[in-house]
Design a protein that fits this description.
Rossmann fold, 12 strands, five-stranded parallel beta sheet, 13 helices, alpha/beta, flat, Cobalt-precorrin-4 Transmethylase, domain 1, 3 domains, single chain, 325 residues, four-stranded parallel beta sheet
Length: 325
Amino acid sequence: MDASTLTHAADKALDSKTVLLAAPRGFCAGVDRAILIVEESLKKFGAPVYVRHEIVHNRHVVNRLKGLGAVFVEELDDCPDDRPVVFSAHGVPKSVPAAAQARDMTVLDATCPLVSKVHIEAERHHANGHHILMIGHAGHPEVIGTMGQLPEGAITLVETEQQASQLSPPNPENLALVTQTTLSVDDTQGVIDILRERFPSIALPYKEDICYATTNRQMAVKAIAEKCDLLLVIGSVASSNSKRLVEVGAKAGANDAMLISSADSIDWDRIAKAKTIGLSAGASAPEYLTDGVLAALKSKYTISIEEVVVTEEKVIFRLPKMLRE
């Protein structure tokens, strides 16, 4: 062993770091199902299979599926009539499956069942004569899909507490509330509290719309945040639930928090300043990205890993009937 190798080993031993690994993290049941729908569609129908919008917001997942023969497009008009098309986990406006049916296309709907639940709630409220308020982020595909379940003007989007305070909705005595499934639990509660105070008769979801996976990942980040000099969240900049994890961690006490897409985007200057590092991953980030980050840390430091588990997830969503036959 030469002198430089010995020096490197000594430096690693001296500069040890603790990694708090949040659990649950990474793929949720809805993401697992959506990816499996694309994979099984390719097996059943052969390539290419078209996917309207990114199946989930993660380029590593998308690039792997492209390699298997999936073709990702933004609009149904970009799909040929004679090839299957998969709708992404985020859901689509009603006009999209209607257009696909008019073209007699083979459709596989990978919309997360928990997003579909919000669609059904919105339709029920509309049928009961309610004007609907939706808490969410403008332009996010899930919000576009949910608002597109009903006629234009039936849903008003509320993004912030300030908007909730200033809102003048039609029919204020007959309102109902739905939310995007990937929001910050705490931030959403603040908006809900304002809306309930201003509109006491507003009909709330029977069970909260923010999905179990989003809630669990935020709980896990909160459990480690106060101990973290730096919190790393693996996920895409397009991923709402991943960005919310960074925000939740910062608010819960992490000295520093950042979103990274993979080990390749680690900021080593920030790592160098941190003794205790928290690590989580958004619901569309595969576990091998977490493994890659841990391997990168181990290549430079002596690492002690402590997994902090707040709950176990056993949810499984069935594939569409077409792929089960």
